[in-house]
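== Sequence entry ==
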Amino acid sequence: MQRLKKLLEAMEQPQRAVADAIGISPAALSAIVTRGEWPRRDPDATKARLQDYLIATGVRKATVIAALKEETKPENPGKNDSPEDTTMLMRKQVLTPQAKRQFGLVRSPFSDELSGPEDVWLSADYRYVREAMLSTARHGGLLAVIGESGSGKSTLRKDLAHRIGAEGLPIIMIEPYVLAMEDNDQKGKTLKAIHLAESILYTVAPHAKCLSSPEARFRQVHNVLRDSARAGYRHCMIIEEAHSLSHPTLKHLKRFMELEDGFTKLLSVILIGQTELQTKLGEADSTVREVVQRCEVVHIDPLGNDLPGYVAHKFQRAGVDVDKVLAPDALDALAARLTGPRSTSGQSVSLVYPLAVNNSLVAAINMAAHIGEAKVTADVINAI
């Protein structure tokens, strides 16, 4: 509501003073000014009190009425009409200097700069996925780790690499480059079996010259893996962004896993991808049935009841007491904000994943500092 915003700015009064005068929180007033969202409880009474207050301070009645009648229009009309769009994710947020000073934050608790395993927060669900990944790397198999964007999949991959190195496990991680990978050549470049073979050779036998013909190269891959296994090593191929794999490549992965030396399997595979990977590995798709029948699938679930522990860990790593920044009702409000209905099924879906939580809390901390709140409250969360 641009007119109302300009009126308040012209008065040169803090929003907190205006909010106190009409009996609402500063966060609620901020929601009115920035998005035209009135409190759900008796919005007409709130509007009347604000009108009376502005007129009493000397603003012309006609000007006040015009400002309060202004409607807030969505940025993209027609694109936010479905129930699924009621739960929106935020873009990257950065703490303002004002917020850092007010809450004593030398560095952001939510920057996600991982300097070591102590920075990785593990719930019971994350520990299960973590152990499933290590078990596959050590003993073989095909594992698909599926989670929403920002759920912590890449963090678990980094943790696996660290554990293998720290514990001195004889496991060679093979990670094909997926920088331009798409599931068709119109949108990008498909990752093909020949590329997987090259990745194996470059990792396991970096000084070997790749043979030119496909038959010779795949035979070379088999020999290299066999010789390495006889030297005591296990081999695990990890493919990030696996939801962008093509169906033929998914089928070929099964054939790579069938490379063996007697009873010894020479290669295990871990696929890490977003929820589209679940669709590609669907039981109804006959083109990948031989993969589906051999693939163990684990899902990274939303934080749920682990949200307070995750947030406390983040603040503890930054050296700040979480209770000095967040009010007791803040996290319940955040969980509710990041939960909404799916338009296709009508069921509630939770987006309480680390990245969404990080961005939402940074935005809330910035708003609390901007409007002069001592802590991030439920009202502040609802106003971002």
Observations:
- The chain has 17 helices and nine strands.
- The radius of gyration is 27 Å.
- The beta strands are 142-146, 171-174, 234-239, 260-261, 264-265, 268-273, 295-299, 339-341, 348-350.
- The longest strand covers residues 234-239.
